[in-house]
Amino acid sequence: MSRLIFGLTIFLTLFLVIPPIAAHVPISTQDGETLETAFFIEDPTKSWVIYSDLHKGAEPRYFGFEMDVGERIRILLSIPIITDPNAFQPSIALMGPGFTNSSSIPAFLEVPESAGVMIFESEPATPEYEGFTPTSFYALIDIDMEVVVSGDYYFAVFEEDESGPFSVALGYVESFTFDEWLLVPFDVMIIHQWNGQSLVLILAPMIISVLLGIGYLLSRRRDLLELESTVSWLGVLGGLLFFGSGITIFYQMIVASLTAINAQLIITAIFGIIPILLGFYTLRIVLTDGWKKQRGKRIRLLILGIVAPFLWSGLLIGPALVILSGIVASVGASETYERRYAPH
Prior knowledge:
Structural class: alpha+beta
Shape: elongated
Radius of gyration: 25 Å
Order of helices and strands: HHEEEEEEEEEEEHHHHHHH
Helix content: 40-55%
Number of helices: 9
Distance between the termini: 36 Å
Number of strands: 11
C-alpha cells in the first residue's frame, strides 16, 4: 500500500509541475463574425487556446477582452500542420485605446470607436511541437506587450483571400478549474480533429489496445469466462482503458513528431507512461486469485479509480469501471462476512 501511495504522489506531483510549462485550456467557438458578436474572453490573462476558422477571405473573426494597466496582452496565432502556410497566412488586427493606427487597415475591418489599430502579419511558418496535447502546428504570429491604458480591447483574425482553420493561444497564467482539468482528454480530441484527424482515427489506438488486451487475457486466463468473474472484468476493462490512454498519447506523439521535434517530447512521454502504469497496477490487482476477499487490494483498486481521472487516464469510463469493481467487491465481501458471522 505504501508503495502505491508513494507512486501516486510522484505522479500527481509531476502533473502539478508539468502543465504550467505548456498547458492552455482549449475553447472551440464559431462566434465573432462581426464586431458586435465578438467572442468575449472573460479572463484574458489565463492561458486559453481558441480553435476557430475563417469561412472565406475578407471575413474576419472578432474577439474581445478587458485589460488593466500593467497586464500583458499575449497572443499566439497558429494554423494546423496540414494547412499550407504559403497559401493561408492570416493576420491579426489588435484594436484598443492608446494604439497608433497602422499604415494599412483593411477596408472590410470593423473598428471600435476611438480605438487604434495595430496590424500583425504572419511571419515565415515555423513547425512547433506541443507536448501537452501532443500535437504539432505552424506558429505564425507572436504578440507580447504590456497594457499602458486600461479598457476594452479587441482583436480580429483575418485573411484577405483565403479561408482556413486557426488557433489563438492567449494569456500567460496557467490555471484549470476542476471540470476543465478532468475534461482535458476530451478537449484534446477536439484539437486533433482541428489538426485534420477523424474521431475514429483518434480513438483507434485505445480501441485496438482494449481489444488486443481482452484477446490476450482470454487466451491466458480461461477462468475469466466464468460468471463469477464479472467483478474482475469491470476492473480489467478499466485497466485496459488506462493502458489505451497511454498508447494513444504515444501514438499522437509519433504523429506530431513527424513534422516537429523539441524537448517537450519528454513531457509527452511522462504523460503516456503514467496511464500505462495505472493500467498495469489495476490489472495486477484484479487478475490476482482471490483479490475480492483481500481488503488491501480492494482499497488499492478504489484509490486507483479515484486518482485516474486526475491523471487523464481512461476517458472517465475507465475510472468509473474500476471504482465500480472495487465497490461491488467490497459489498460482496461484506455480505459474505455477515453471513459467516451472523448469529444462528
